[in-house]
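thoughts on my protein:
***
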Amino acid sequence: MNQTVINLTNDFQTLFASIAPSKNRYTVFSDFIFLTAAALRNAVGHPFRHLFNQDIENEYLKVISAYTKDEAGKFANLMGLYVCIAEAGQEPHDHLGDLFMQQGFGEACKGQYFTPSPISDLMAKITTPDIAKSLEHKNFLTVSDPACGAGSTLLAVVKECRAQKVNPQYQLWIQGIDIDRTAALMCYIQLSMWHIPAEICVGNSLSLEIREVWNTPAHYLGGWSQKLVKPNKLPSSVTKPREQQEIVIPAQPTPISERSSQKSNKAYGKEQLGFDFQL
């Protein structure tokens, strides 16, 4: 971690401590995460009005009403500091998970311990040794994590794609599921910041009960709802260079948000129930 990131992290912690000091710290942090995620989600609804979610907007207004105008402004500044931290780090990294753990929330609140980024980086290197080769006959790769937490393992895959000169914004689609809403929204925020097409679900991967689905802006702006319903393979007869190929747009798994019946267990594919790097 470079000195700039350390300094910005300290600034984040100082500003966070000044917001509603009489309130439970975990509650304030969870509110910050929700407010940020909600702002990102409904921002997509401005160019695409059908994506605007009034229920999320109503919840946003209810949460923010519990704070003063000054405190509401500080939440916006916290978001700005997080963006600066992510930019200063230069590579995908679970900064929100680090901030969460530095506050002692993992042990004190829910017994959550997010995977340290160095371990996630190692797992990604072992699991995806040659991403470019995997894309020789595919348009993109899909990754599913049934217990994504704040997104450490998924961000490590994004980092590995970049290291192997594969653009994760166009050649990777992610699905993450977590039973804890705050953790799932942390993952949603961080993947959104790196403009990664993703579907983040709040729910139980074992019982297949999905309570909420949050698609990143990149998912909508990249037209991934359409891409995911077509075969994810290049024509076998194609001989021209990869960059000149006519794209036959992609593949599985069908996103939960697009499935016709979410109430039936049959609506969820078995392929979603593993830490599955579909290469």
